[in-house]
Amino acid sequence: MSTSLRLQQTSDELISDEVKEIISYRPHWMIRKGNVVFFIVLFSLLTLTWFISYPDIINGSARLVSSNAPKMINSKTEGKLMKLFISDGETVQRGKHLAYMESTASYNEVMQLETWVEETINETQSNKYNVLIKKPLPSFLSLGELQSSYQSFQNQFTETRQLLASGYYQNKKVALQKDLQYLSNLKANSFDQKNLLEQDQQLQKKEYEAYEGLEKEKVIAPLELNQYKSKLIAKEQDIKQMNSQLTNSDIATHSKEKEMMDLEKQVMDQHQKFNSSLLDLKSEVEKWIQQYVLIAPEKGKLIFFSSLQENELIATGQNLFYVQPDQNNYYAELMVAQKGLGKIRTGQRVILKTEGYPNEEYGHLCGMVNYISNMPGRRDSFLLKVNLPLGLKTNYNKEIFFRNNLSAQAEIITDDSKLFDRLLGQLKKIGER
């Protein structure tokens, strides 16, 4: 037996079975390659920190605002809802009648009266009062609280129509115009007569001057000269009488013109009374409509505030409808405290989580800071305005319905850094200590 074999047998005899079992045992792969796995996991975690965002967030309370917010329509009086003209979700135009409340007046008669009043106002503004002669006033018997105003207007309408329809004004105006024409003709004739008298006076004056020369030469007697002087004086008296006649003609013309002015003033006063009464009636009709008729304040989609039925009892001030305008510009007003205010800049991203629409189901609204107030408000908070590029559409692509004073919780992302940068920053701080 060789020496090597003997040595091997000797070593085998010296090693026990337990030792042999330990030596022959093969460790688990985790133990054999644990360091490699550890470093791989560590590297993977570090790699994930590069992709995971860890933003710096400032919280605040916000409310959604609209530059053209939905318009609420409520009842101005208590009573039954007599008639509904529209349905829920219908698109309405500005000024459309939506419904009317219970009143002692008939809605249809009031609307007919309003139409008649508007037409008459347009006609009288163009001084077309003669149309009233052929335009009768409709008879209304169910105007309720408007009946007294209507009756007062009816009296003025009747007086105005009688003044125009009887022909008194026109006939008297024509008669005065004829009188003025006659006086004008008489005055012209008197002027012609005065001119003839003045010419005759000049001839008489020349004749007197000739005889006056003869009297100085003793050709004729003074008595004969006096006869020619008497004729000259008579011509002068005729001219003065003609001047008096012209003055009387002017006085008569002035009197007729004054009568014409008085007549026109009488008609103008009646027109003024009619217009005043017409506008008073228009004002009363508008008050009634404002009190009992529900009118769309703007074009948009009409939404019922609650389920409504005709003949339903409505309380004063009860919200009935609101109109959602077609075009809206939504934004958010955000109040933040002084802490962290210096980190906020315009253009930073804002996440809005509305309280009425859970973000787990509807998602959140995305906004951007576009205004920062320089002066603090109440409680030392600052106002921020947040633009909403997508309107009221959430990140889940769901539309949030706007309501006045819809509140939300806001998160302003001031630093959208990665988790790796945060860890690196912490390590630097530890190393600097």
Structure, briefly:
The chain has 433 residues and is an alpha+beta fold. It is built from 11 helices and 14 strands. It folds into 3 domains: 49 residues; 163 residues, Efflux pump adaptor protein, beta barrel domain (Elongation Factor Tu (Ef-tu), domain 3); 189 residues, Orthogonal Bundle (Helix Hairpins), CATH 1.10.287.
Write the layout of secondary structure elements.
Elements: H1 3-14, H2 17-24, H3 29-32, H4 34-51, E1 56-66, E2 71-74, E3 79-84, E4 91-92, E5 97-101, H5 107-125, H6 131-134, H7 147-165, H8 168-216, H9 222-292, E6 293-295, E7 300-304, E8 312-314, E9 319-325, E10 330-336, E11 349-354, H10 359-362, E12 365-372, E13 382-387, E14 407-415, H11 419-432
Antiparallel strand pairs: 1-10, 1-14, 2-9, 3-5, 3-8, 4-7, 5-6, 7-9, 10-13, 11-12, 11-14, 12-13
Helix pairs in contact: 4-11, 5-9, 7-9, 8-9
Molecular structure report:
The protein is α+β, with helices and mostly antiparallel strands and 433 residues long. It folds into three domains: 3-51; 55-96 and 296-416, Beta Barrel (Elongation Factor Tu (Ef-tu), domain 3), CATH 2.40.30.170; 105-293, Helix Hairpins (Orthogonal Bundle), CATH 1.10.287. The chain has helices at 3-14, 17-24, 29-32, 34-51, 107-125, 131-134, 147-165, 168-216, 222-292, 359-362, 419-432; strands at residues 56-66, 71-74, 79-84, 91-92, 97-101, 293-295, 300-304, 312-314, 319-325, 330-336, 349-354, 365-372, 382-387, 407-415. The strands form three sheets. Strands 1-10-13-12-11-14 form a six-stranded antiparallel barrel. Helix 5 (107-125) packs antiparallel against helix 9 (222-292). The longest helix has 71 residues, at 222-292.
